[in-house]
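yo

u said u wanted the structure for the complex thing, so here. seqs first:
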Amino acid sequence: MRSEPIDPDGISWIRVSPKFITVQLIGWAVGTVIAVAVASVPLALLLTEVWPGFPAWLAWTFSTGTLLVSLWMGVLIPRQVRSIGYAERDEDLLIRRGIFFQRVMVVPYGRMQYVDVAVGPLERAFGLASVKLHTASPQTNAAIPGVPAAEAARLREQLSARGQARLAGL
Amino acid sequence: MTGPLGPGPEVPASAGPTRDVPLVPDHEDSWHRVHPISPLVRGWLALAALAYFFGRDWFESIFRGEPLWLLAEGRGFVAAAILLGVLLLLVGGFLTSWWFTRYQVTQEHVRVNSGILFRQHRQARLDRVQAIDVIQPLLGRIFGLAELKFEVADAGESAVRLAYLPLASAQQLRATILARASGAEADPEHPDQILEAPEHPVLAIPAPRVVGAALLSGSTVALAIMVLVIGTGLFVGHALDWSSSGVILSALVPGLIAVFAGYWSVFSTAYNFRAAVSPDGIRLRYGLLETRAQTVPPGRVQAVAVTQPLLWRFKDWYRIKVNVAGYGVSAENAGARTTLLPVGRREDVMQMLALVLPDPGTEDPFGVFGAGLAGKDNDGGFVTSPRRVRWLSFLTWRRNGFAVTRTALLARSGRLWRSLAVVPHERTQSMALHQGPLARLLKVADLQLHTTMGPVRPVVYQMDIATARRLFDEQAARAAAARRHSLPERWLEHQPEDPGGPDHSVFPGQMERGVRPDSPDRPDQQAVGLGGQEQDEQH
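structre next:
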């Protein structure tokens, strides 16, 4: 993976599991079906002649527009997942994400208030988990999704231990 | 209400909850109650609604000269009984809730038990205090009562609210809590004589400036735009010979109400604003109808923002907002509570910044912070956006920038609405570099500093990518280093040795008038006495 301009020097990112792409794609497929179905209600009403007065071009735009946007988002998912990465440094944890709108975040271990490990049904089926770090700031949106369960447990223990060692107040 | 009694000699054998304010640390089972009239002060709205409900009918009947429906033959007794019943229920409810609300302040904790059916036991550690407010609503001022609010870092919800205590008791209790939270040694011979830390007035905002600030606020801009739009509407309507000018004018009413509400909120919260400093931290007092006295202990301010609304630049006025972990974003008066200075000249801003940041970490604080307030380009050591982003932000590219001192990061932005955010290094929670597609094209990035919940959101906008990355790395290292040397939570407990000495690092001219917030002045307080503390809050 090539390094993006905003990535700090000398960092080798740990990428999340490729299985997370499948998880995201399944979620995306369900969402797409629902979104397209909802957006196609006017078209269905028009074609079944329940509401013949509805402008045809608008109905078609709704349906095809939603479909196209959803497909585009689906195409992006693999790249988005591959762009997520994290790296443990001595004092802090780095997390990156995003392809168009990129973000690199640094969370000092001493600032962590608690660590969440969450597993949803889909993630469980693939043996994955999400790790989330919380500081006293609500802006710290430090989530690492799609981590293999064993790695998530190791991260949680590691982060808690390092947080204890470097605990600072607010 | 008498539980098993502690062995303490001070506690009489018959001690139930008392109404005296605890001056010596409470034992596990000595409890106190708030003033019995409190529920009335809190629940007066219910009573007012009741009075309105019955009173309106009454008045209208009198003015119409009709016999009162309620007092018509045969109904008077029933009506009186109903009224009495409702009143009794209310008063009974008030009394029960008062009876079941108890509090205690021990050496380590403050505890409040409340609730009748659903009991709530709340306990907060004293040394975790983030701020203490003494609030007097209008009715409370009439009765001489005040509410004591004890904030810990839970983003908004008050840890402990003691409503209401007599004003003098509330102030005494605040002094007691602060003394214990600070870790100051009590006089072993008179453990009940905890005196309020001496304070030095720093500044007061004169009333004319408050009026001026309100008139020059954003409400006036909104009013001007509204008048312009509606004037145009009227003109066009007149030219086209419409008959709907009444409708257009009536659209003005809600707008006007909003504008005057805006004026009022500025005026009522900035009125009579005074700031002072004491070893227990920064003291702020303000309010027109409801008065507040806030105390923010040293090291509790997480981030500061100095802003200048568009019209204030004519007078070179600024406003200071702070993030304090305990204040959060609770709806109630949050705008006023997080305001460190509602309106002030540049020298006032410098004084308040000196209180928040006793060590500015630079040899030329006025130069650096002055450039942060109103400067542009590289004056004061600021690093600004590269010239190539002028197409993207043609107004702000010479102003967006940052400066780093030994103790804080300054993030400057805004050309018309100027803004400067200051984050002490040891208060940085986390950081993030952001880059969107346009920014990547221009090889720039934004650095966002994360702090606790509040009005300040420091961002360094559109830095050259190499600069941004270096700042990101260096700031992480600086924050880590500063955290190791930050003040202890009990701010008077043991003095951190200040290797640099106290003198070179403060704003010149400031500290002769103030006191270093971490100087151990407790012995002197005994001499100041209770009389000295009353003057400012009695109005």
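Chain B touches chain A at residues 130, 153, 155, 300, 302, 325, 426-437, 440, 443, 445, 448, 450-453, 457, 465, 468-469, 472-473, 476-477, 479-480, 483, 486, 489 (CB under 8 Å). Confidence is low (pLDDT under 50) at residues 1-15, 495-539 of chain B.
cya
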